[in-house]
Amino acid sequence: MACYLPLSGAIVSVLLGVGAIFTLPLALTDPQAMQISEAEVRAALQTIYDPELGLDIVNLGLIYDITIDQGDVRVLMTMTAPGCPLHDSICGGAAQVIDQLPGVEHVEIVLTWDPPWDPSRMSDAARFALGFD
Predict the structure, then answer these.
(1) Tens of pLDDT along 39-89?
(2) Contact call for residues 57 and 77 (beta carbons, < 8 A)
(3) Which of 5, 31, 59, 62 could form a disulfide with 123 if both were Cys (CB 3.0 to 4.6 A apart)?
């Protein structure tokens, strides 16, 4: 028999039998704690860099949309140019870092060329780093 008792909103103690207590992270027992946020996905995507430009794909403005439906994450993104030879490795890296996030069950990376990327999509920091400002 198991009984779940929330402690401090972050930990759940599982009481099994007489005197046996195991402490688990709340995320392992509470489905609401497994919800992934767009901010978490964006933070993960900021670890993926375009090796030619040396900037992450979020600040480059390559991420157009992130859709989350429970454990399913869909990212609509582009590249700086349709002929980008690194699109497979960048998209693969994006899928890999998202897949490692707790609560993610399925990742879909959709590459689009519409609308085409242009430098106005970059963050201020990226424009500064590349000498646009």
Answers:
(1) 999 999 999 999 989 999 999 999 999 999 999 999 999 999 998 889 899
(2) yes
(3) 59
Distance CA 93, CA 53 (A): 16
Task: State whether 27 and 65 are in the same domain.
Answer: no
Helices (H), 32-86: 38-45
Look at the chain and report how many structural domains it folds into: 2
Q: What SS3 string covers 10-32?
A: CEEEEEECCCEEEEEEHHHCCHH
The model's pTM is 0.74
5 and 53 belong to one structural domain: no
Q: Which residue do the tokens 């600040």 mark?
A: 59
- Are residues 97 and 73 in contact, defined by beta-carbon separation less than 8 angstroms? no
Say if residue 52 is in the same domain as residue 9. Answer: no
What is the Cα–Cα distance from 86 to 52, expressed in whole angstroms? 9
User: What is the longest distance spanned by two Cα atoms in the chain?
Assistant: 67
**pLDDT tens string 94-129:** 999 999 999 999 999 999 999 999 999 999 999 999
